[in-house]
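Subject: for your reference before the review

Hello V.,

The reviewers asked for a structural picture of the protein, and I figured it would be easier to keep everything in one thread rather than splitting it across files. Below is the amino acid sequence we used in the manuscript, unchanged from the supplementary table.
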Amino acid sequence: MMFRDKTLWGLNSAVLFMMIGVGMIVAVLPQRVMHLDGDGQSVGYLASAFAFSYILFQIPIGGLADKLGFKPFLIIGYLQCFLTGLIFFFATNSNWIFLARLFQGVGEAPAWALAPALFSIKYPMDKGKVIGIYNAVIHLGLTFGPVLGIAVARVLNEQEIFLVYSGCCLLGALTVGILVEPRQGGKAENSSSLFDLKNLINMFNQRKVRVSLTGIALYGAGYGIFLTTLPVFLLKEKSLNAIEIGIFFTLFYAAISLAQFITGPLSDKFGRSLFMIVGLFITAGAIAITPVLNTPFILLALTVASLGMGVFYLASMSYLNEIVPNDLKGTISGAYYLFWGIGMFFGPPIMSRVSDAFSFQTAFVIYSFLIVLVAVGLMKNNKC
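And here is what came back from the structure prediction:
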């Protein structure tokens, strides 16, 4: 019966369309900025512009969705990304590109956070399974998007690819509008305001929530490190070539996707805490030994670390949605991606500074130690 549900198909299809589009423009955006500016000095701000708005609006969108319902915000998010693609296409200078990246960050926030919140309400007994499928679909789109982008680039020019991205987002909005059933997180009539600050404070006062969110920030840092700092380490310190770096990225996305499928149903059966703790220990151990390995064992260790990250990712999201009431599902999902975004934003530069001051090995060991501390904290909270 689950796989006949229109909402399940609608949300997964919509996010697949969007993430394929995102994957297609990843390589094109820096080229577009360089073309408009004549140099690449401002390219680094592409990630910062997206991350700033993505982080800033997570909890407000989640809180409002709890009061007003998830579907309207999902549709608005997809439509905002549709307009973002048009701005990318018509931009006459890089300032418009960076403004569009701010819009894109706000637009993607509901797609990442609100769908898992909706699933946790709709499928309370199978939330791990359905959220795992959804997150795997996200990474599937990000994996195949760049490949499709290369194929499309043979037919369309650099600028026209943004129209394809825009079309993917519009298709996602239409899919949500047609297939997703309206569903509200809580009861708006029981609250005198649209954003309940008291409930938010009470939620953060729970120790198990704070420890979990700390782990999520470290996971976000790891995600960012895998996309930025680690490739530099592999190129400089381990002398990997371009093909091997491509294999590394493919294994990274594939491992996280695989972990979603496996962890979801198992965590429904055996509990979330176990998989959160195991995922953190696997990640810490694999990352700690990475600096002393060489090809192909270093790729194997990083793939194992990616699996551990994926296990923690899915289990922690399901766990947080499990320990809060229905009228805070959107808020906790927003908090999840707020902390994930903070980690992703600050983690890589901190890792780079520690590596420059000491060594990559020292930086990896410190990061692994912090992960172990969170795992121990989770064990104490859950009396494992």
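For the response letter, the relevant points are probably these. DSSP finds 16 helices and no strands in the chain. Confidence is low (pLDDT under 50) at residues 186-193.

Happy to draft the paragraph if you're swamped.

O.
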